[in-house]
Exopolyphosphatase/guanosine-5'-triphosphate,3'-diphosphate pyrophosphatase (Methylomarinovum tepidoasis), 508 residues
Amino acid sequence: MEFRVPESSPLHAVIDIGSNAVRLRVGALGHGGRLDIIEAIRAPVRLGQDAFGRGRLGEDTIARALETFRDFRHLLERKHVPLTQVRAIATSAMREAENRQALIEQVKAETGIVIEVISGTEEARLISLAVRHALPELEKRNAFHIDIGGGSVEFVVLERGQVTALESLKMGTVRLLSRFGGEDQKRFVRLLDEFFDANAGKIRELVDGTPIDIAVGTGGNIEALGQLGRQLLDTGSPKRLKYGQLKALCKRLDALSYEERLEQLKLRPDRADVIIPASHVLRQVLKLVGKPDLLIPGVGLAEGALLDLLQRRRGNAHQDALAWAASVARKYRVDREHADQVRHLALQLFDQLTPVHGLPARDRLLLELAALLHEIGIFVRPDGHHRHAHYLLSAMPMLGISDAEQRLLALVVRCQRKKLPDGDDPLLAPLDKKARERWLKLVALLRLAIAFDKERCGGVAEIHCHFDGKRIEIRCLGKGDLLLERWAALRQKDIAEKALGHPIDIEL
């Protein structure tokens, strides 16, 4: 099948391949940078029913998904949206389906659309982006955001508009229905509550004493609950629910059979079953975080991914990563004055030595993150803190960077001090030749930046680098004698020369 490739368009599109449905959003940035959605389509392809029940996608499910993608591709062609401006993202069901690659390859072969399977952390980041865009008032409040999907539930703590903690738990509606569902409704509800109680500690740890002013709920089931609140309880608006109203809704829903929910509430067949686990998870979460009012902005992963795609065109891609790094630094009680000074120096080195190191612009962000977070391991134990930092950065969720970038970041921080691993070291095994070159250059720049603030007094104010084609000259200006900084920098000279491929003169 052939498709005409249109010219570049202001319109962009996102396809959200969820566990309960596949969604298409087409839009652009309108006046004032607001997101304008011009096309929103939902196809009820329940990948999670196969993935969570059997561990693989069935032939019929793959066929329905392919048909949906063909329909979406034709619509994109009519809207003149080129594939370079389309992002297709898959979540929990595709993460777990052992034969997901078959669907990915067939979709690409038949439509040209490339499916990207994202992590739960990236999913939470994108949904949070949509929420913050829709609710700018969150910049002045502490909020707890819950997104209930078919396979997983994402929890995000927002302190005055900044993401400070997040978690993705495998307690989505389709998954819970597959695991606990059956003919006995009372037993199902009891098992749901018991399962939540077993996971409540993770949510308490996430909040970690932060006073929650407001809750935000996203996902089709939460939007349906908002509509049911207005319909059954006369709440006045589908955009807001109080805890007591949600509790009353749960009671009303539990008293109805699946058929009664279809007939009396006019719910879709693929909503009438999963609304039960969704309502109970939401009720339990709100109770756990202090029973705040719930805002329902009507946005989700698709809108967040579309906003992210559009904002990347405007150079706003780093904000979440840097805000997240700042929250991690606070959590692990990093010396922020030293970390900020190392970042300041590292970015000067990166920018002025760009013609020499030739690293992509994206690596500037990785170096900045490494500078901010290089001492988080001290929180665990000062001795060998570079190793502890490596473990923490490898294990924790990280916003705004890919899994591969996170592994590289962790390894750069791991090698900030002591002897570098040699070529046979298992630490370097995941890196190919090109990645090892990037790693060594970033390590060299980080080590020099740390050395230039060895006394932790901000003595070096400016760095001036010059390259004449043969030698690199690094000249530092500041206050004091800078003797300790000079000694520390000269100790890193051999590594820097090896990484950059030229002799280096260091003047302080």
Summary: The CA atoms of residues 173 and 278 lie 6 Å apart. Confidence is low (pLDDT under 50) at residues 1-7. The chain has 22 helices and 14 strands. Residues 185-207 form the longest helix (23 residues).
